[in-house]
């Protein structure tokens, strides 16, 4: 039987290291059980409540500085937001009709000169 503490430690290990769930060391329990606990707490808002409570405690002790600075010189639009044409079923526009040009050959170039 795996304790909830071992499963939570497994979640902490996975979040800290970034390993895939299936590579979870056995000391934390089966990866499926660890993942199930993580997802269950994520869906019912447990992680958000834990974060909010810890943030409130840190703020009460003046451990958080709430300074916000936005520098607009580094804000850039993504290349796809620049209005470029999308690929796909979009028909390409054709240039205006013009008479076909005659092929230039070495003989034709000498005759034109």
TrEMBL record:
Residues 79-89 have a biased composition (Basic residues). Residues 2-51 form the Insertion element IS402-like domain. It comes from Saccharopolyspora erythraea (Streptomyces erythraeus). It comes from the Bacteria. InterPro entries: IS402-like_dom, Transposase_6_like. This is Insertion element IS402-like domain-containing protein. Pfam families: DUF4096 (PF13340). Residues 79-113 are annotated as: Disordered. Signal peptide: none annotated.
